[in-house]
Prior knowledge:
Blueprint lengths: L1 H19 L12 E4 L2 E4 L11 H19 L4 H12 L3 E2 L3 E3 L2 E7 L7 E5 L7 E4 L10 E8 L5 E8 L4 E8 L5 E10 L4 E3 L2 E6 L17 E6 L8 E4 L8 E6 L5 E7 L5 E7 L8 E2 L8 E7 L2 E6 L7 E6 L9 E4 L5 E8 L2 E8 L2 E8 L4 E5 L6 E6 L6 E6 L6 E6 L4 E6 L10 E9 L5 E9 L10 E4 L17 H5 L3 E5 L9 H5 L7 H16 L8 E6 L1 H12 L6 E5 L18 H4 L6 H10 L13 E7 L8 H13 L6 E6 L10 H18 L6
Amino acid sequence: MKRNIFIFVALMATSALMAQNIQYPKTVKDGTTDNYFGTTVADPYRWLENDTSEQTAAWVEAENQVTNAYLSKIPFRQKLLQRMTELMNYEKIGAPRKRHGKWYFYKNNGLQNQSVLYVMDELGAAPRVFLDPNTLSADGTVALKGVFFSNNGRWAAYSISRSGSDWQEFFVIDLQTGRQLDDHIQWAKFSGAAWQGDGFYYSAYDAPVAGKEFSNVNETHKIYYHKIGTPQSEDVLFYQNPAYPKRFYTLDINEEETMMYLYESGAGAGNNLFVRDLRQPGSQLIQMTLDMDYQYSPIFSDGDKLFLFTNYGAPKGRIMTTDIHHPGLNDWQELIPEQQNTLNDVDVINRQLILTYMQDASDHAFVYGLDGRLRHEVQLPSVGSVGFTGDEKEPECFYTFTSFTQPGTVYRYDMVSNTSELYTAPKVKFRQEDYTSEQVFFQSKDGTRIPMFLTYKKGLKRNGKNPVFLYGYGGFNVSLNPGFSPVRIPFLESGGIYAQVTLRGGGEYGEEWHQAGTKMQKQNVFDDFIGAAEWLIREGYTSKEKLAIVGGSNGGLLVGACMTQRPDLFRVAIPQVGVMDMLRYHKFTIGWNWSSDYGTSEDSKEMFDYLRAYSPLHNLKPGTAYPATLVTTADHDDRVVPAHSFKFAATLQESHQGPNPVLIRIDTKAGHGGGKPLAKVLEEQADIYGFIMYNVGMKLK
């Protein structure tokens, strides 16, 4: 026991000594201020918002040099990366899906930067490479975003992104010859390909100003029709709405090409829905709904009958039907009413409905007929998450299941006999049976009951000395379900606990749970997260000296807000690609789209005051000892622009007083996270876990 205490103290002392020797770059300040409802707010690092200036580039280089120098001195950093690489090196196979008589599935041999799309003539036949995104760039930074097959079986459109950006490019493959055509579409964003006849619809913005591709506000989303074999310059503008430039517009067309749906979103928590009967020559789009506060989504059409999902009048979701001749919301009829648990997903396979509900953030699946009658529950392997794959008219059905201790495993499901058989299971180099997960509940500050999952190695003792990786999100109706991560294993092997908390603002308990963490209720989310940390300490799982908090994007805001509100409570903070400037977030790319959750500083003085009260950037106080902090961002992040993290890190380094390191890690040729090549993922995760483990005094086992 004494030896372990000595090792812990020695490690902490070494870490503190390293931090004391850090010379942070001197970040220039200017006199920039803004006036909000008579209140002057300083923004001395505004110049860091210019992500293409030489001055910003020099600052990024200087910060990365300091950060890399610190991370390189972590004694077990290389061994940690090696162990993560070993754990990630297993064959990953996705569920197969039938399209036009052939079967397609994704596969990664182990350490490929991007997964490869394969095709089989029939199930069990020898697979052939259909599309390998690893061939599109030498460093794996070109990612495949989506593949969209034409309804006549002649073509497949696919979209890519470069260096993690949200910008998309479309290309087309001839399915008969396998040859890529000359068709090439640029500056698409948040778009699929909706096929009709010999072409498809897509959504795009006008080409951005050179040098501002990743920061300028995106306005006036447009829908175009592209005919195969023609240049993009000849694409026909199908729809735009200049009266509302800060909204999204996307199209969807069913496989029979009888129904067209237009979605309008970006001004609320949901979307508006329009429909057009393509069987009728000269038909027009008809508006089905009148607001964007609720979700409306078509799931199936059977002749004139439309099946739809909505949470209108049902915060936890329900299934409705209507007739194409009476598409207005007032004419919709309830088919499957709202249940006690939240409806998370709907699939139509073999002309049956598979409904996935969340019970305390864990999935449960049920099969219903098109008549709305329950057939049976699908018996899943355990508590976890599930996703179904199949076709509306085909009998074959697969599902992928995962949990905190079980990697993604594919099962073949017989909908008639209600039986599952293993299709493919990954082989990860760890002993799954050595680990366990449990779900606990605690009361938040206002008495709300909050769930939390804990995953750890069996035999763990609640002695207050276990390192904890506390993770949360809490926003935008996003649900955090159980899931497996190979990079988490070395932390668990070394005695750590992974804690995932179900915060208000998410979608786990329906729209009311979501709204309880938005706008003037946003503080509930931070209180829930702080409450989770206090409960873990009170119940003997950990201590303040062993507690790390982690979150990305809106979760980065979560970490930033909690570390500024309770800097005494956490040993380590990792805000990843976070929204840190709550007064200006809406002025970049598609930040305006987040106002339904956050509100903006321009709405009212009351909203400005509320945002300023928790904005991470504006609540860093000079002379405060903050947790050991590693801010992460990337140069091509055009979702949450890196200026958020730049300004926060500069202010943190200026304000912080104490031995803990406060650093920023800025990745290159990377974005918000999606499509990041595996090599970059492993490097980043080794740095994050290494920083945490080193600063809580862990040794890699």
